[in-house]
Amino acid sequence: MRVKKLLKILAYGLAGFVLFLLLLAGVTQTQVFRDGLRAYALSRLDSLLDAEIQLGTITGNLVSGFSIDHISIKVRNDYLVVAERLDLRYDLFRIPGKTIAVDNLTLVRPKISLLRGRDSVWNFSRMVRPTPEDTAASKPFDWTIKLKHFKIQDGTFVLVDSASLAEPDHSLDDPFYVEYHNVTLTKFNLETSCTISEGEKLAAISNLSFESIRPTFSLKRLSGDFSVTSNEVRVKGMTLSTGGSHLQLDALMKYFNLLAG
Fold first, then answer.
1. Are 186 and 156 in contact (CB under 8 A)?
2. Which of 161, 212, 218, 256 could bridge 243 with an S-S bond, Cβ 3.0-4.6 Å?
3. CA Rg, the chain, in Å?
4. How far apart are the C-alpha atoms of 203 and 205, rounded to whole Å?
5. Integer distance in angstroms from the first to the last C-alpha of the chain?
6. Does the pLDDT of residue 27 top 70, yes or no?
């Protein structure tokens, strides 16, 4: 009898939990809730960041994920990120196991600009508001991050390091030299999945491609499985194709700990 009673209680509890999720999903799909969520998010971001944040219309719900039809972050006079759309889908049931599980994260036509001024400060550092120093001992972040599908569609990536470019001993422009302090990549496409935990870093890249402006260079495809653990680094099935070359590679380096810094 006690077993039957326990099973009955569990059944009622499960039914109540499912009903709660359905109600939550329904409420979070209303326009009133989404408008309130957007206002709250902008308010919180404004308190944390010294930047101009814009968020477009939010669709979806908080139970399984949502989409934003426009997002931009402007630091001083320049944009750090501008994207036509952001899609995010996740699994909240993995949180009790200290796992951040993202089923899908997609950026559509983003432009990401990493800019370093002559004062040697990057724009992404400049936008963070200073906070009082925390003297309490911080615990290491021991959660696992699982990103099942991450996609960048038709993006643009810009990096300009003005501090390094202004140095007296900086080399002159060379048409065959890769200028790492001034990079512009267009038609940037990426599809990958990754797992990041305290003991390992895994990435499976199904496709990475882009066009480089300086120098003129085309990466047609980069794919492969990459892993870093506490005692080895492994590259499996890597394929790299450009306009004039094709490379396939498997590599393994054992007894080597990149995670130790």
1. yes
2. 218
3. 23
4. 6
5. 59
6. no
